[in-house]
Amino acid sequence: MRTGRPRDPLVTQRALAATWDLLSTKGYSALRIDDIATSCGIAKTTLYRRWPSLAHIVVDAVVSRIGDRTFTPTDDPVADLRAVSSMLVQSVNAGKDSWVSIALSLHEQSDSELRLRYRERIIDPVRELLAEVLERTALAGCLATTIPTDQLADMLIGGTVYRLVFLHSPLTEDEVTTIIGGLLTAR
Amino acid sequence: MRTGRPRDPLVTQRALAATWDLLSTKGYSALRIDDIATSCGIAKTTLYRRWPSLAHIVVDAVVSRIGDRTFTPTDDPVADLRAVSSMLVQSVNAGKDSWVSIALSLHEQSDSELRLRYRERIIDPVRELLAEVLERTALAGCLATTIPTDQLADMLIGGTVYRLVFLHSPLTEDEVTTIIGGLLTAR
Amino acid sequence: MRTGRPRDPLVTQRALAATWDLLSTKGYSALRIDDIATSCGIAKTTLYRRWPSLAHIVVDAVVSRIGDRTFTPTDDPVADLRAVSSMLVQSVNAGKDSWVSIALSLHEQSDSELRLRYRERIIDPVRELLAEVLERTALAGCLATTIPTDQLADMLIGGTVYRLVFLHSPLTEDEVTTIIGGLLTAR
Amino acid sequence: MRTGRPRDPLVTQRALAATWDLLSTKGYSALRIDDIATSCGIAKTTLYRRWPSLAHIVVDAVVSRIGDRTFTPTDDPVADLRAVSSMLVQSVNAGKDSWVSIALSLHEQSDSELRLRYRERIIDPVRELLAEVLERTALAGCLATTIPTDQLADMLIGGTVYRLVFLHSPLTEDEVTTIIGGLLTAR
DNA sequence: TCGTAAACGAGACGGTACGTCTAGTCTTTGG
DNA sequence: CCAAAGACTAGACGTACCGTCTCGTTTACGA
């Protein structure tokens, strides 16, 4: 038997919208739970009833925002690979509202369930998409290396992130083209 | 004219030792400036006289600890590549006292000088070492790809970090062997 | 025409019983509306439908519990005075479930109707009883002072309360005997 | 050895002044620790370093404000009694900044040391003053009752407080005159 | 040898955000 | 319309931590 006042679905919606808004405006490190509450007119207690911490809200906000990316492959695996790689670089380098900075902040988070959720909804889809495209490229005989495609995907994503986060010089589209070129068999 | 009481050189030493100790025990996110001060018996004021912020202390602590890695190359570039790759994986996966988590936390840091210092002392050496070894491997004609060696280095390091930080399943030695194998020309 | 579900008379009863129970167990300052609701299995909404605030519930609980004290006077006014005084001291010093602490908390209450109700049901009866007995004592010529009897009653009750609340050393039975003795004419 | 930065005496001063100000403006029940902090420009943390709770600040504020009342007796004990009684009534009925409401709020306070401090500095002086004057009146043979003077003092103060807090009809100067008159021997 | 200027230890201070608590209101389902 | 359950608003609370400040004390150097 369901009883009691049901949770207002608008609350979740408004909270996540406000969170996303603040996130892309000020960035994760400047995100304050009170600001979220104020900006969407929801009491802090209500936020804490639904999410155990700020990090949980953020994960949900990102998930609800960019969780449903789709890519419809063509029958040219090489073209697909170039397209997906380009998308990858753009999304990583997107700035304050990149999924990367949230992933970084989750690394030290003790709540493994939260990390898992973010990984399954945000990180894995990108990885799987890239790995698939690489796999199809390999099956088409266009890949010049025998490195397993999923590890190749890790290296491509990792490389992009590394350039941004560690070296602070984001990977450019040209460089991606070079790298992809180096991965393909000469024709 | 230098006058006044000279700075006690032991202070820096003790502070960095204590910082490193706490860092490897509790991890960066649980590091508190007061804890450092207490654990080494140095006043917080003294710490702030020498370092402008907690992050600076941490950077120095890491630098003084693992800043002097050396690798003496042999005349077998392939063997060197395998050795360096193995070292890389170990250092990334080292745990709480890995240089990786500090690098992550510096990403959002506004002080670019600090980031630069960490990069020059900690991040770049690893990268350059790997790039060099890759370059020598390429010159020896053993590399199966035309991707520029420095970008290959980024991908290798980035991939390792990505596995740890994003996927929370550290790269294993076996997997490195596979990857390196895929990079080399068949004999 | 009265329609709909009739109010369950047991609800009021259970609520007041639970309130009184918590009141005498934990005291007024530790009384929580949610605790009352939980402990008697009544929804908070239901409580608020019947009483406008926590204070109102408490007042009703006390009224229903100790609102019906009776004292049947004898034809010996001095003996009556001694008996009533003794009762007074006992009720004031009763502990956590004394009517005194509720009276104190009502002092700052804005709802004057509520205060009035408590006064009429709890405070005034005691006062009037004492004043009456004093009056009869005076008429019998046994009172050694010309202070009006109602003000004398105020002083007796006030003195007892003052000892408890302000000095935290409750008036003893012996002291009451002394005071009453001092009020009476020597024989 | 005294070490560390000494506490700024102005902090205490400013905090207590602000507390007293808010207390007499809005009353105890509307007193907020944040308001005190804001209104005197002192960080909340600093307040909590010096006083463990709001109640402690308030006690200190009242003590520092009205802790040093003096009364210089004349050689007419009856006149003194009338004067002191009048002062008593005025101070009890003073309104929001009366010492009475703070005393009431301390009743439920668990910290007995705090209660003791308030009693010793605020409550007892009034009581002792009144008891002394009564005693001198008795020695002069002007007292019409054999009730011990300290208990008489309790009754007078208690009666005044009772009228204010329980009956919400403060004792008037005229009534005090009547009561005092009733206590004195006819001439 | 003695003054002086900086280093140092200790801890107060301002400020910001956090997560918790509680009173009282609102909104459902079910009787 | 009542009752139960629980979501919701609003606002104060006390804590944690950072980086700064202000003392008294200590120590090397130069006058």
From TrEMBL, chains A, B, C, D:
Molecular functions (GO terms): DNA-binding transcription factor activity; transcription cis-regulatory region binding
Keyword tags: DNA-binding, Transcription, Transcription regulation
Record-annotated DNA-binding residue ranges: 32-51
InterPro entries: Homeodomain-like_sf, HTH-type_TetR-like_transc_reg, HTH_TetR, Tet_transcr_reg_TetR-rel_C_sf, TetR_C
Stretches assigned to the HTH tetR-type domain: 9-69
Pfam families recorded: TetR_C_11 (PF16859), TetR_N (PF00440)
Stated name of the protein: TetR/AcrR family transcriptional regulator
Lineage: Bacteria, Bacillati, Actinomycetota, Actinomycetes, Propionibacteriales
